[in-house]
Amino acid sequence: MRSNRRQSLLSAVALATVACAFALPLRGEGASDASTSQPAEQATPAVGPIAYYVAKCARCHGDVSAAYVGLEHPKTGKVLEQEIDDMASGPSQSPLDPEGLKQQTAMHEAMFRKTPFVWIDPNVKDRVAGEVLNGTTLTFETPAGPSAAPTVTENRFELPKQAGTLIAKRGEAVVRIPVR
Ligand code: HEC
Predict the structure, then answer these.
(1) Which CATH number fits domain 118-179: 1.20.1420, 3.30.70, 2.60.40, 2.40.50?
(2) Rounded Cα–Cα distance for residues 87 and 159 (Å)
(3) Which residue from 15, 60, 71, 103 has its CB within 8 A of the most atoms of ligand 1, so it is best to mutate?
């Protein structure tokens, strides 16, 4: 288990290095967010990378939009992926599978680069639905032209099932995601 070494290292240094972590607000500050992001009547369980972060990481690192505030040189790429893997199996006690780890890493890169991040929920078949990172604007284009923009609630978006392109924009960065 490659995480064991890192995990014990973390427990030894975690408290001493809190200042180095990205936005670690005082415990409890973000606590109210967790309850609002879980509407009682959610048809589809929120299982995407953002829901995971809110449930498993935000208590230490702050809300998705608060994490990384003031951290000038965040970890990136493989080093970031390893850190997330260690955090998931260490303090969060919620190990990620390879796909989940890939998604979580991509989301973190988008968080600090301020680029768009969209996750399409493969479990939703009758609509196009998923998660979108705060600050990302979504529009949808069909071959016939622009169509109604997806509805966004908290970090969940959805739109009627249709083929086209989901366009995610954040600042100057644009990502075009084909939807079939
Ligand atoms: C119990 C509190 C706690 C929880 C829960 C936690 N972390 Fe951390 N995290 C820390 C501390 C403290 C550090 C800084 C010390 C270190 O890097 O070992 C850190 C550092 C990090 C870093 C490195 C930031 C950088 O670029 O320097 C990343 C990335 C990270 N955590 C991601 C996560 C993710 C993803 C989760 C959820 C799976 C998570 N953490 C859960 C406390 C926590």
Answers:
(1) 2.60.40
(2) 33
(3) 60
